[in-house]
Amino acid sequence: MALFVNRPRILDTTLRDGEQTPGVSLKPEDKLSIATLLSDIGVDVIEVGSAAASDGERESLRLISDTGLKAEICTFVRGVKLDIDYAADYGADSVHLVIPVSDLHIEKKLRKDREYVTKMAWDSVEYAKDRGLIVELSGEDASRADPEYLLNLYAGGVERGADRLCFCDTVGVLTPERAAELLPQYCIAPLSIHCHNDLGMGLATTLAGLKAGATCAHVTVNGLGERAGNTPLEDLVMSLEVLYGLDTGINTEEIYHLSTLVSRLTRVPLPTNKSIVGEMAFTHESGIHAHGILRDSATYEPISPELVGRKRRILLGKHSGSASVEAALSEMGYIIEPRQLQEIVARVKKLGDDGKRVTDSDLHAIAEAVLDISCTPVIRMKQYTTVSGNSVMPTASVTLFVNGDEITQASTGAGPVDAVIMALRKAVQDVGDITLEEYHVDAIYGGTDALVDVTVTLRKDGELITSRGARTDIVMASVEAMISGMNRLLRKRDEDRG
Ligand SMILES: CC(=O)SCCNC(=O)CCNC(=O)[C@H](O)C(C)(C)COP(=O)(O)OP(=O)(O)OC[C@H]1O[C@@H](n2cnc3c(N)ncnc32)[C@H](O)[C@@H]1OP(=O)(O)O
Ligand SMILES: CC(=O)C(=O)O
């Protein structure tokens, strides 16, 4: 039985509440890139910021409004004429008119009374309608407000022309049960629900709100937002689609693209275990899981990664079993006997026990040792030099033997590691276009002379591999990881050619 009657609308507030994540600040062109993708994937309304906040915010609103996106363009306003004027003058279609409605907010924050706030709300609705705006009249801290007072404020707002209402669980204290109790009385106009994740209840309460009659959910990409953030777009959309069988109208295959764009532009990294979009959401290491996945991915994946624009990965480590190690070896082109496989699995587990991430290069090296294959590396390092300091541009030079030819290259970079990696890539560019997809340094414990563990993910012709370098010198560890990975990728090409 379907739990929701209609397709819920989605209002994305990544560019407003999401940008209120402390430390996040987006330039107008960044906001436009995100808004364009949000509109393209099918979001109904985009709250692009708070026009009153700054000149840059108004510039963003103008830029996005003038682009003519399919989605409705909304901006946050207080019950203040100036805010509403900004919204109208800078091209918004609609306003998210936010009015504090709990006594706590009215008395302590605004230092006003209920009558003052009611009048402010109603006058603002009338003014915004006069300025030609669609109005979503929103109760801030609605979950802690007196329900009777709130209903009266909403009803008067609707009488004065408010097109929609919104119920904000501003500090994330609403439970799904309370949402089910409270919300039906407010369905006197299309109702939105706006939830925060302070206690991790955002998604559950948003779903309960939709079930209780709300017709629109406020969400943010990656769950960004004040404090612990808002209900994540990706979680809500995939829950509605997969668990409740609803067509949200969102192109789910673009979700990962959207998530990584937002993470990159906001500089808020994704937690590795974040549902749907975290690095590990479709990555498996445990032997029992990998064995199951290899037979039927549904055994340990509730949705297929392709549905959200991702790919499955199987990592090796101390929890691996023979099925996943054999699959990884076979992908690398090794044909092995059962006894050799047992030995390789044992060595993989030993690396894991030593606290190491097991990379493709590690597996390759183990396989070569166990199978006793001697392999001539394509690249050998002759020397590298880096220069850095407070008054010089970080610079690196490298000399490599590439297929026996001596090649020297130099590069500047953001720091010595960046410079040496650029120089290495330049030195091998004639034999392969290798890009660095990820660079990771494991936490260093101990003193400044402790071992540094660098892992790189490299790509060539669509193939991704990981490799590691571990030295006390971070530049040397980086060079080691790069050379090992580049050799693996270039050797693979030579092997493929026969
Ligand atoms: C739950 C939420 O997410 S609410 C949205 C939060 N977003 C923002 O704050 C957007 C960014 N904010 C800003 O740039 C600034 O705070 C501005 C431009 C809006 C206001 O700046 P200032 O005028 O310097 O005021 P300041 O930030 O110190 O205080 C907020 C003022 O707005 C008033 N106010 C707060 N909410 C509302 C509201 N919904 N309607 C009307 N007035 C409000 C406060 O009472 C206070 O005014 P007061 O000093 O006269 O009492
Ligand atoms: C308006 C808003 O973002 C809130 O009340 O949480």
Automatic annotation (TrEMBL):
Pyruvate carboxyltransferase domain residues: 8-256
GO BP annotations, alphabetical order: isoleucine biosynthetic process; L-leucine biosynthetic process
Keyword match ATP-binding: no
Reaction it catalyzes: pyruvate + acetyl-CoA + H2O = (3R)-citramalate + CoA + H(+)
Pathway recorded for this protein: Amino-acid biosynthesis; L-isoleucine biosynthesis; 2-oxobutanoate from pyruvate: step 1/3
Record-level Gene Ontology MF annotations: (R)-citramalate synthase activity; 2-isopropylmalate synthase activity
Keywords: Amino-acid biosynthesis, Branched-chain amino acid biosynthesis, Isoleucine biosynthesis, Transferase
Its EC number(s): 2.3.3.21
PANTHER family according to UniProt: (R)-CITRAMALATE SYNTHASE CIMA, HOMOCITRATE SYNTHASE
Function: Catalyzes the condensation of pyruvate and acetyl-coenzyme A to form (R)-citramalate.
Subunit comment: Homodimer.
Family: Belongs to the alpha-IPM synthase/homocitrate synthase family.
Name under which the protein is recorded: Putative (R)-citramalate synthase CimA
Lineage, uppermost ranks: Archaea, Methanobacteriati, Methanobacteriota, Stenosarchaea group, Methanomicrobia
